[in-house]
Amino acid sequence: MTFRYAKYRYTTRLFFWLMFLGLTVSASAATAREPGVYQERALAAPTQDFSALGLKDCQQTLSLDSEHYLAVCRLATPATTAGLRLVLVDTGRSGQSAILFQSPDFGDAYYVKLSVFSKDQRDGPDLVLAESGAEFSYGIRVYTLNHSKLHFVGDLDAVLDRDGVASSVAPALRITDTGREVAFTFTDNVMLPDRKGNYTEVAPNHLRYVLSGSKLRRLVSVQGVTRGRTAH
Asked: Does an H or E element contain 81, and which?
C-alpha cells in the first residue's frame, strides 16, 4: 500500500513537472524572434486635416494603414507649449479619443522627420525614428510601434560631422535584431555630444545602442573615442 502511494505521488509530480516544462518551452518559443535586419518602410504621406483634434501646422503625415497615421504637429491650444510633437491618430475614432499617443514637445526644433523601420520576418515591433533639429541635428528619439501602441524607448544622440555641422546620423545607421536584442550600429565615425555642447568623435566599431526590453542603452568603448572635436 505504501509503495503504491509513493509510486502514485512520484508519477503525479512527474506529470505536472513535464507539463510545466512543456509550457515554459512553448512560451519561450512563442516569444523568441528570428535574427534579421530592419529596413525602412516606404509609407504614403497623404495630406490630412487634424484641426478637429486640436492639432495644427502638421509638418509630416505617414499612413500606417487606412485608419492609423503618424504625424508631426503643434497643439492648437494656446495654453500649451508651441513645440512640435509626434502623434499617433486613429481616424476611426472621434474627438480626443482619436489621438492614441502624443509625445512631449521637441523643444525649439524647427523640424521633426519621421521614418518607420520593420523586419522582413515581422516578428517584432516596428521602430519609429523621430529626428529633430534646427540649424543642426539634435539626434533621434526612438519609439516602438506594436499593434497601434507607441512607446518611447530612448535617444540616439549620435550625429555625423559634415564640414563642422552636426548632421543626421541616419545615412550611417544600421538596425539589426539578434533575436535577443535590437542593435543600432554605424558604418562611419560619429560624434557624441556632452552636456556643454562639445562633441567627441567615436569610431563605428566602438559604439552601439542596444534595445533590450523597453529601454535603449548606449554602449561606448573607450578605445574608440577621440576627444576634442567640436561641431555646430
From this structure: none
Domain ranges within the chain, ordered by starting residue: 35-229
CA 20 to chain centre: 34
Q: How does pLDDT run across 101-122, given as a tens digit for each residue?
A: 999 999 999 999 999 999 987 7
Which pLDDT value is given to residue 32?
67
Under 8 Å between Cβ of 89 and 53: yes
Helix (H) or strand (E) holding 74: strand 68-75
The arithmetic mean of pLDDT across residues 192-208, rounded, is 91
Q: How many CA atoms lie within 13 A of 62 on its CB side?
A: 19
Instruction: State residue 10's pLDDT score.
Output: 47
Residue with cell 550625429: 159
Please, are residues 137 and 200 in contact by the beta-carbon 8 Å criterion?
no
Question: Cα-flanking dihedrals φ and ψ of residue 48, to 5°?
Answer: -125, 145
